[in-house]
Amino acid sequence: MKQVTINDIAKLAGxxxxxxxxxxxxxxxxxxxxxKIERVIQETNYEPNQFAQSLKSKQTKMIGVIVPRxxxxxxxxxxxxxxxxxxxxxxxxxxxxTAQQTEREIEQLYNLAKQKVAGIIWLGTTVTERHLQxxxxxxxxxxxIGQEHxxxxxxxxxxxxxxxxxxxxxxxxxxxxxxxxxVEEYDIxxxxxxxxxxxxxxxxxxxxxxxxxxxxxxxxxxxxxxxxGHEQSASLVVxxxxxxxxxxxxxxxxxxxxVPGDISVSGFGGYDFTEVLHPxxxxxxxxxxxxxxxxxxMILQLLTGETIPMKTFTTFELKLRESVxxxx
Amino acid sequence: MKQVTINDIAKLAGxxxxxxxxxxxxxxxxxxxxxKIERVIQETNYEPNQFAQSLKSKQTKMIGVIVPRxxxxxxxxxxxxxxxxxxxxxxxxxxxxTAQQTEREIEQLYNLAKQKVAGIIWLGTTVTERHLQxxxxxxxxxxxIGQEHxxxxxxxxxxxxxxxxxxxxxxxxxxxxxxxxxVEEYDIxxxxxxxxxxxxxxxxxxxxxxxxxxxxxxxxxxxxxxxxGHEQSASLVVxxxxxxxxxxxxxxxxxxxxVPGDISVSGFGGYDFTEVLHPxxxxxxxxxxxxxxxxxxMILQLLTGETIPMKTFTTFELKLRESVxxxx
DNA sequence: AAATGTTGCGGAACCGGTTCCGCAACACAA
DNA sequence: TTGTGTTGCGGAACCGGTTCCGCAACATTT
Lengths: 328, 328
Hints:
The structure is a homodimer. With about 325 residues, chain A is of the alpha/beta class.
């Protein structure tokens, strides 16, 4: 089953291969030859060799997707959305994992360029000068998801507004003694913007806030939960992510506290299973999958030269559930 | 920043491009020319054009990975493992998603072949004649993960043994009134082998077993949990996957039952967060990530023509935790 | 009827590599 | 010195497409 080439088609149809090429790419071809070529192509089920095409055109039908990790809920859902839409539009998704190393993000930008992807979707955590340099160098459209920067087209979650809205809700419910468990500031969106949204709401209501900082890992949040369970007496623990909430819940359980009886806990991000836990977790749902689809649309628009806004916000949805008590 | 080509290198070094090519591919080149070429390559940081290479060699440094869904814990972890090892060995992972449509698995086998991937790792759910035909047609090494078939190299989870071991443990603990919540048989490994391992253990102990069947989705298991909570009086609900266990737990909670006080529940698969839930869930841990790494190793071995066993088993580990009570 | 487009098509060059072939230079054995 | 191997290297063909150029046939304008 060796590869049928354009030469074979040309020979079988009795025309020049340039004519076949023109036929395939919508050039001017007469009806008679058009028919002949079409028949031969059907019979042989010929498919053009992509390498030969890319060699000349210096382009592929691939969109590179740079993800910090493969095993995160957010990344997986986003990838689903991207892949769906891309497949519809005849493009392919090429995922590269950076294992959370900033250095590898930059490497991969260059690497994807070398592979001549048509565009790049980048699920970012932090944007540095070197990133910008790379983006500039490679001359390929880049769309950033989840972070923002003035010089890069970006699709961002409304972290501030969502956090503010959720925080305000908590204030309305009468919580005034708050513990906030956040993450390091190097992740601007989560570490800073999201936190600031919450703090704004808390401050406006004159609430008391104590801040802890941890990683994105469940395990690291468990001791914090335990500590809170043993030492602190807040009415509500607000966590920067659902993973952190999970860890805190575990820690509290270990310390013998019940939620929301003894203390309330909220998450952020909207993992599916936060709903089926008992108690179900109050959180903010971010539309990861749809964001992926939109990102795909946007990068394709950039390819065709359309102008799109530098910064686009997605939506959010409060999920008010059992894990946070209404005090009043 | 246009691409430096082998012609440029040849010209700058004052040699023929065939010589440069030989230099790059370890042919015979004299020391003097070797030095010249090396210097020029350094200066220009030349990198060969992959399309041109693939055009001739009809090969790439890519391994295709066919996954049924992007947002499953098992798939994500496995992909991580694959990617890690592949990256180490200078290969790249090309993930394609089939959205759980068997038809698309077959399509993708052909499609990956067209893209000239060096090998394919296939996270399968079911193996049909048409799959085998495709594998035969494309003439590319394929490694199947999670299912087995006599004609395909496969890396499988010890579903039977693991289920048997866990089931036996439950018997030892005195459970005799069992409800098994499984999945459809079309997934051989999970729907049949896993179930049979459990049933074997239950039957050997003369336990009473009632069987329910559901999908892989959390939501579909919730009503089953509720029904069990209302109508049934087993001591233990054994679920075929952790997702199902999650749904059942929710259903039971909705029905006002506590776990393990009123009834015990077990899962299978070993999601990370089964440990941090309250109660923590008894389950079987399958080494997804390591399996991915091994799969990568094996497919690379197949590429180099080494012979490996048609069927390789991975390990498992029982995670005995709070959600299952010890009756005696 | 002559001048001026249009349209359809073939030939050849080109994309950037790899590989085959043959020649020249040199070393060594006879 | 002649013959026989090696080794290093350049030239050319090739992989399978796309695109430019030019020519011939036909249609349109004046």
